[in-house]
Design a protein that fits this description.
about 425 residues, mainly alpha, disordered C terminus
Amino acid sequence: MSNKFQMLIKPDRWPAFARGMLAYGSAEAVTRIVRLGSILIVARQISPELLGTAALALSLFELTRVLSNVGIGQRIITATESELQPICNRASQLFWVVCVGVTIAQLMVATSAWLLFNLTDVAAMLAVLSAVYFFMPAGLVQIFLAMRAQRMAATARVVATQNIADCVLTVVLVVAWPSAWAIILPKLLTAPLWLVMARATYRWSPNRGAGVAPVSEFATFGPAILGSELLTAARLHADKLLVGALLGTEALGLYYFAFNAGLGITQALVTACSLVLLPILAGAEGERLEREFKRAFVMGLSVVVPLVSMQALLAPYYVPVIFGENWVSAVPHLALLACAAVPLFMAAVIGARFRAIGKPLSETLVMSCATITALSGLVVGAQFSLEAACIGFGLGLSAVLIPVAARQLFSSYCSSSVPLKGDL
């Protein structure tokens, strides 16, 4: 049996990126089967208007939650062995500070939604979801340590288990109580499950004897990572706020359905790519780093492009069968939004490379341009129709991310022993 054939049939001999993506891909496949069933039931039980209300609350929740991504975890991943324990000790403290601050910020958003816009239900949902942040700090150090150790199967299992539990609870609640709350409450109810599994994934507790790293150790990553995450969140969630404001709640319900059904599985792969690739690139340098970057880029595109093509081309056939005839009008939007996964995948890969070579501010610059063009394209398109808004969103992403990705790939091929400087 040849070595190449053995590599094909034995995942433990695959490249690290392929093994990590296999772990997340397998977990996502199981999650998608369950999620498709839950979406099927939700789509038949909940009207587009109620779904739009839940979408608005969840979009505001996700936009606020991104404030917790201030580069603390990325600093754990890139820490050397000698500085790891002090970094983790300080990170544990900082996670609590950040999560309390985000809780306050979300309650302020909820108050504004109630007092300024009379969105009583949305405000109540945001207030309830703010309790999620009290479960996060006690498990975040363990999750990032597991990622640093490239235990991708374990971290994928945590994500998949929580998502499956979320879907099951959503189905139970939506059958018993068809309302927007049935979509919101599972996000909180599954938080304790995530915490228990996160702490079991990697055994760690603070070691006071090792001391704590100064806060300045997190300064390099903090502002840049937060900026990139805010821009990414704005790109992925502010679009729903704009659609709701420009085209109404019913159009938002259609857009939210199309976004989740069209970008759901591919967006999960994009997120998994970013999570898997950063520890791999952070543990490499020079030619090895560039080799891993190129391999991940080509390997990921070979999966994402065929998957996106299948989703877009087959949407007219599977949407009415799986989700019901009342969602047929969302088919064009689903197909168009599915195509946005290609530039989003490129964003994940080049973002991981920027972080690994210590240039997170370059990532922030790229993401700011992509966010501006994507949301601008959506706003311009929304002046004509929801379908045009979807086209504008995808074209805006592609106009920035595809050229930058091509430049990064070209720079990677041209570099020899060290990453190029100024490779934007």
